[in-house]
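Schema walk-through. Below, the input block comes first and the output block second. Nothing else is stored per chain. Lengths vary across the set, and this one has 242 residues.
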Amino acid sequence: MSKPVQEEKQSDDRLSHGPGKEYEIYARRFSENEDRTREVTWKILIADFFQQYISPRDIIVDLGAGDGKFITNVEAKRRIAVDVSAHVLHLQQQGIEVLNIPATSLTQHLDTLVDVVFMSNFLEHLPNKRVLLEVFEECHQALKPGGRVLILQPNIRYVGSAYWDFIDHHIALTEYSLVEALEISGFAIERLIPRFLPYTSKSRLGSLVKGKSSSWIVRFYLKLPILWRIIGQQTFVAARAI
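--- output ---
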């Protein structure tokens, strides 16, 4: 189990402002319509893509769970949301186990090894790459042998300068630096998609998804990998603990 890094670990998930400030920044980012778009999109992404990596018998941890769009929709035996923001506590009302802690102290609070660790748009919020490696070390220690880490991550190679449009983005990653960090942390890459999803719900694809009646657009996109190579600006990685 890794030793605490006192100052940085207090702010490893979001900005180190006062209580709730990090969630306030995030909550202001999406309009009500965009938030509905995200809800529809996540349900389809999970059902048509992510669920293939997660068994209904699995114990899964969602690092940087935020508003819970992923963890509340995925099917698993135990679902555990981890986030430094106290806002994550509201997920308990939906049957989600919650750990209101920094990701770098994950193994200190889990009562068992887990099958899957998931993270989406999380790593860019960490203060530096040393903390990123500590997060991966925690993930490796938290997983059962052969357990998976699933990462959806903006790729600065394809996002470009827009990556820095958000005040709480601190570090930038490409598919190569992400893979390198995983491999030196004891993971074997199972699948790598350098260009998978658009950057945000404000993107060209997101602007087309206005509600349940447009859910077919997301399904259509997922069935055509050629579109990923044109529109995709986020990288997906599945890796196993070895």
